[in-house]
Amino acid sequence: MKKTGKSTFFIVVAFIALFAVTAVFGIDKLFGDNRTTYVKGVDDIRLGIDIKGGVDVTFGPAGDFEADANQLDAATAIIKTRLSSLGITDNEVYSDEKSDRIIVRFPWQVGETDFDPESAVKELGEMAELTFRKGTDTTTDEAGNEIPSGEIVLVGDDVAKATREFQPDSDGKNYEYVVALELSSEGSKKFAAATAELSGSETPISIWMDNTMVSAPSVKSTITDGHAIISGSFDADSAKRLADQINSGALPFKMETKSFRTISPTMGEGSLDAILLAALIAFIGIALYMIVLYRLPGVVAVIALGGQIAGSIAAITGWFGFMNGSTLTIPGIAGIILAVGMGVDANIITGERIKEELRTGKSLDAAIKIAYKRAFSAILDGNITNVIIAVILMGAFGVPDSFFSKILNKTIFFAFGATAEGVVYSFGFTLLAGVICNFIFGVFASRLMVTSLSKFKCFKNRKLYGGDEK
After folding, report:
1. Is residue 147 situated within a structural domain?
2. Hey, which of 28-42, 176-190, 318-332, 388-402 has the most confident mean pLDDT?
3. At 442, is the secondary structure helix, strand, or coil?
4. Sheet of 130-134: strands edge to edge?
5. CB 302 within 8 A of CB 16
6. Is residue 46 part of a domain?
7. Strand pairing partners for 27?
8. SecDF P1 head subdomain domain location, by residue (predicted)?
9. How far apart are CA 446 and CA 466, in angstroms?
10. Is the pTM of this model over 0.85?
């Protein structure tokens, strides 16, 4: 194994600094009037109902339709998935089978001064039935509404995945937002057959979302690669919204809003500012304590704690491409604080181990190596229980089709109904993210930094690590 060199400290610090800056400020690019966000920052964090307030809406079947228990459960799961795709994990969604109602509560988004709750509720309750049809023919229903009547080529279930993309238009002169579809194997066969039939004809394949035609492209050739594009004067938000609706699937029945009201925050953003100020003061106090008591390892611990906090922020904003972000709630803040406390504890354990090894007369290099090795088992034992608890909370109170929910609902919670408390999920999410970041920054990164600093002649004094001069 390659030994840790002097440059390692500066590399690790530079990585933590770059990571922290991007996690806090994000990365975006302005292209004309369109702003593309590559990495979300703190300004993109969605605050929970308890901080920001939100919406309380009750949905029910439209008309005289009576939904059964399975249909209500399916609709509840789809609504939760739609909320999750928007990064709204602080939500409450549950069904009342006796009255055929689905109750939904979700928060505002930070910075949404022009937020239209009625429009958001309408989109959430849309059936979102995607169809590809031959031609653009329409007819009218009993209520006089125009509805498509062309032969159906594809439906939403034939789509495996939908994503928003920014690509050149048909002329190749300008860029536009589109929704790219990846079809299932069965959908690919249907689409290939339809495009082969209509290739070169004047009959287009129209694309409909519910009863609204999105686009009607002509068919120039047979398409056999299982991919399709939906274009139609989209901006970034509308393209993402359509992709999310397709991915979440169509509701099993048409819904309408039975009641609607806004919810006031339980504590308000002023209280959030007070909590953040108190947390900053506490962090400064902890930093001074660590530096005074543990000296050079204490300085490294402060840097590692900064990286851990940045990691928690990155997890909430969705900085990591392989996972969605989370809504920031008061329980979520509690999860961050608890994880930071565990990070402090991990650094205290390591600092004390270094002191103990130095007092036994070991060399500085040996003391650091043995101290981190012995401290790791204690830190692991102290954190593994919290990881298990966080996973259980995320599985029990998360989106039904999430990874942890699928596992736990099939093995442990299969006898219980759908859960509703997104705030509990928020606590589990931030706790798990904080514990993982604790291992990355508080254990591995801090070990690299301390070992690297010990290679410098000016940092070889044993007193800098809490030991006596030898």
Report:
1. yes
2. 176-190
3. helix
4. 152-155, 130-134, 205-209, 212-215
5. no
6. no
7. 39
8. 151-252
9. 16
10. no
* 254 SS3 class: coil
How many Cβ atoms from other residues are within 10 Å of residue 266's Cβ? Answer: 12
**Residue 46: which of 104, 112, 93, 105 has the closest Cα?**
112
Which residues have CB under 8 Å from 424's CB, separation 6+?
331, 393, 396, 397
> Is 298 in the same domain as 370?
yes
Query: Does residue 325 contact residue 355 with C-beta atoms inside 8 Å?
Result: no
Write the single-letter amino acid at 390.
Answer: A
Instruction: Say what percent of the chain tops pLDDT 90.
Output: 35
Number of H helices, E strands in the chain: 13, 15
Model pLDDT, residue 202 = 86
- Assess whether 356 and 457 both reside in one domain: yes
Domain count, the chain: 2
Asked whether the beta carbons of 255 and 71 are under 8 A apart, the reply is no
- Assess if residue 65 is contained within a domain: no
Domain span including residue 144 = 128-250
> Are 290 and 356 contained in the same domain?
yes
H or E element that contains 176: strand 175-183
Q: Which residue has the tokens 């130095």?
A: 358
Beta bridge partners of 106: 55
The last residue of one of the domains, among 221, 250, 279, is 250
If asked whether residues 223 and 286 sit together in one domain, one would say no
Given a contact cutoff of 8 angstroms between Cβ atoms, the answer to whether 213 and 201 are in contact is no
Indicate whether 38 pLDDT > 80.
no
Query: So what's the pLDDT on residue 44?
Result: 79
The backbone torsions φ and ψ at residue 255, rounded to the nearest 5 degrees and listed phi first, read -115, 160
